[in-house]
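Sequence only, no structure available. Ideas?
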Amino acid sequence: MTHFADRLQDRIDRLGNPTVMGLDPQPALVPPDILDAALASSPDPRLGLARAYREWNRLLIRSVSDVIPAVKPQVAYYELLGAPGMEVLEDTIAMARDAGMLVIADGKRNDIGSTAEAYAAAFLGGMTLPDGRRIEGLRADAVTLNAYLGSDGIRPFLEAGRANGAGVFVLVRTSNPGASEFQDLRDGQGIPLYARIAEQVDAWGADWVGESGLSAVGAVVGATWPSEARLLRGQMPRAIFLVPGYGAQGAGADDAVAGFREDGRGGLVNASRSLMGAWRKAGPGIHPVDAVRREALRMRDDLSQALDRCCPGRSR
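Reply:
I predicted one. Tokens follow.
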């Protein structure tokens, strides 16, 4: 079974684009013609929204699958719609994988014991019934995790990932303004909490490194903290950094690639609203799908130029 980090980095290299498209559907991000038609198709607004989200996700995936290597559906937006939303999430994962894209389920899950095992099976694997039949989970390629409960809250996901060729991304230094309230707290040696988590991420992934030299245990490191990202790269040389904060959250391309390796690899920059809602800023006569594709290409070129500036040793 191909190593997760190798699969992801190979697709990034082939497309020349370290971008992941966040699929975080909201009514305001769906073009009006799609949204209105879907809502009119059912008296149940949950079903109508689910149809709108499915159709817009389908068009988004089709429009950028040859440009963007991966998608990252934020699970909360699908859970909000109940069963119809979870069906859309399953369909979206299947559509993306059929298009050759990798899928990172953004669930930020964490628990211990059998509950953590259930979460891990739900996102990265499945379960076998006593009679031998198999129930498959969502089968994402990776899932985001919160490490607050420690190693016994992470270990079940590592085991499920190894068994199914999947990976994990652990929250280390998040992009939100309130991150410093806890993540900057220092221990008796003066080391901040986020740096201690980084130590654990490196340890968890040390024996799970692929041919690319990258681990299947990655780290979420926000683009809004570029100085910290550079320091964290030294602590986690093998981790792929999943980088939120670019675009709508205010970080630029140079900030987003600050934690990439010197060879320009080992990072994946997320954009959600700026891609899904690119049609809202498009000029008259531009189809929403075309607007999204243009923004995806602009972002690719923006990141490529930033990598040229920060990583002169990168190979193309």
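Residues 4-308 form a domain with the TIM Barrel fold (CATH 3.20.20.70).
Hope that gets you unstuck.
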